[in-house]
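In this section we walk through a basic example: taking a raw amino acid sequence and producing a predicted 3D structure, encoded as discrete structure tokens. The instruction is simple. Fold the sequence below.
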Amino acid sequence: MEDLGFKRFIATPHIFKDLYPNTDETIDGAHALLTAHLKQVHPSTVISAAAEYYMDDHFSGLLESGAKLRTISGNMVLVEFSFVAMPR
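The resulting token sequence is shown next.
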């Protein structure tokens, strides 16, 4: 990707409570490992961590509770809809 001119990336692991139960702790831990490795092999590459939220009851609960969401930029949140049913 660097050869194509890309140097900044945003990792967006899924947060889907029953299938991908990622949390700030699991995402931050994986991000720290990846960042440490990148510094050794591609020091000019920068990667940040956000998330892709599956729009389910867990996500609704996060919104209702006022939980801080992992954003991709500013106040933008990446969401994923079901591919088998219309969102509520």
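Looking at the output, two observations stand out. The helical segments are 24-41, 57-65. The mean pLDDT is 92. In the next section we compare this with other chains.
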